[in-house]
Specification:
Beta-Lactamase, alpha+beta, six-stranded mixed β-sheet, Helix Hairpins, 467 residues, 3 domains, Heat Shock Protein 90, rod-shaped
């Protein structure tokens, strides 16, 4: 079962809210009108009682003379005079000789004015309101004057208001519901426009964006946020697509060479030496493929945030010495030296194997593309330890410095080929995984300088020493 559309839900919620507001407002108006009319009736009864008190108390005139006077309207107002025993001494028409007050009310009225309500009074089948007050007459015992009036006018006014509210209320509710439905539709129109555009966006329609309504509200901010998300998705998608294309290209070259070597060995090898040479060359390509696959896997894990690190604290000098020993034999083969700067007291915390891998990539680049001796050093700078690898070659091409750490980036024009272009990218991945950073620069006196910056655990000094 499909859920109710948002437009209907908003209209329904608006209708319920308006119904509650209209009901509360109607009840408030009804109660307030009843209260005002009751207060007006009480005020009228007080004025009427004051006039009748003067008439009866001063002149002793009968109440029958007041019947039809301005302060006693026939059919609506009435009056009654009681003695202290509750006997009816006088009354207007159509009251009978039945007293309007009970014994307790009579005693209270002898002490001061009281107000009481009656569902009906003799001769009048309507609810009425009474005001009783004592009357002092010279030479006579105290008496109680009761004046009253029917609540028919009040009931009619309240009934008219109730009928009007029952008619106008549903009409106002219906109009408010329709207005809420239309307003919800207008508010959701930009959302529907964004939905249709989003449904049409695919990988083949790169660059498409959602329409941004100039409303200055949450809908506009939602559209801007979604467009920013589309930009990030496109960048990531393009990056992955380039990564796959570059990886395929890199894998194709060693595979083609491996296939060529094997075919040549199979078809044209005539001696053991030729077969051995073919196997050796094939083994080199297999090693290159394995290293490339390992590099690609490392980068993929880093992108997914799953690069596991075995953290430990160790001396930076031990790390540099370990890397130097790994490349000592290669440097001697080419008549070069790998030297390090003896460091004392520099402590770093990280995964030793990963950091050795990063420094090894930097040394590999220096041996492959640089000239002269390769020097490893460490130095504290602004709260970090920088592990440098420098050479004495021509340095990096200026146009290569900004993109050196991009995947498959090469400075072939100045340094030649032979690498996958992932070495520096892996250096940056490892450095950032340790909370650090990777950098390259050209020395003023010539040569390239590449380094990684790691958090400094403790300080120390360094001095240069040949390995």
């Amino acid at each position: 079962m499909r859920r109710v559309p948002i437009r209907l839900r908003v209209a329904g919620a608006f209708a319920v809210a308006m119904a509650v507001v209209l009901a509360a407002t109607s009840w408030f108006l009804y109660v307030r009108l009843d209260s005002h009319l009751s207060l007006a009736l009480d005020h009228s009864l007080r004025l009427r009682a004051q006039d009748l008190t003067e008439l009866v108390g001063d002149s002793g005139a009968p109440l029958a003379r007041a019947n039809g006077a301005p302060f006693v309207e026939q059919g609506e107002a009435f009056a009654q005079l009681l003695d202290e025993q509750g006997r009816v001494l006088d009354a207007t028409q159509p009251l009978r000789k039945r007293p309007l007050l009970s014994a307790s009310e009579l005693r209270a009225a002898l002490g001061g004015p009281i107000i009481a309500d009656r569902d009906s009074v003799p001769g009048l089948d309507e609810p009425a309101r009474l005001l009783a007050r004592p009357v002092e007459q010279s030479g006579r015992p105290p008496r109680v004057l009761v004046v009253g009036a029917t609540r028919g006018d009040i009931a009619e006014a309240l009934s008219g208001l109730r009928d009007e509210l029952l008619i106008a209320g549903p009409i106002a509710l219906a109009l408010a519901t329709v207005a809420g439905y239309l307003l919800a539709g207008l508010s959701l129109r930009p959302v529907e426009s964004m939905r249709r555009r989003a449904a049409a966006i695919s990988a083949e329609t790169a660059g498409e964006r959602l329409p941004v309504p100039q409303t200055g509200d949450e809908v506009e901010r939602l559209a801007e946020t979604l467009n920013e998300m589309l930009v990030r998705i496109e960048v990531a998608f393009q990056r992955e697509r380039d990564f796959v294309a570059d990886a395929g290209h890199e894998l194709r070259t060693p595979l083609a060479l491996l296939r060529t070597e094997l075919e040549l060995a199979l078809r044209h090898a005539r001696s053991r030496e030729e077969l051995r040479e073919a196997v050796r060359l094939s083994s080199e390509e297999v090693d290159r493929l394995a290293q490339l696959a390992e590099d690609l896997l490392l980068i993929a894990r880093s992108d997914r945030g799953k690069l596991d690190l075995q953290l430990e604290t160790f001396d930076a000098a031990d790390l540099l010495n370990s890397v130097r020993r790994r490349f000592e034999w290669r440097a001697h083969e080419t008549g070069r030296l790998v030297r390090n700067v003896a460091c004392s007291g520099f402590q770093v915390r990280g995964d030793r194997l990963r950091l050795e891998q990063a420094l090894a990539n930097l040394v590999e680049n220096a041996l492959r593309h640089g000239d002269g001796d390769v020097r490893l050093s460490a130095a504290p700078v602004n709260g970090v330890v920088e592990l440098h690898v420098t050479d004495e070659g021509r340095g990096f091409p200026p146009q290569f410095l900004d993109r050196a750490f991009e995947r498959f980036a090469r400075a072939d024009a100045a340094r030649g080929g032979g690498s996958s272009g992932l070495g520096l990218s892996i250096v940056r991945v490892i450095a950032e995984a340790h909370g650090g950073s990777a950098h390259i620069a050209n020395n003023d006196g010539g040569g390239a300088d590449a380094w990684i910056a790691l958090p400094n655990v403790s300080g120390g000094r360094s001095e240069e020493a040949a390995a």
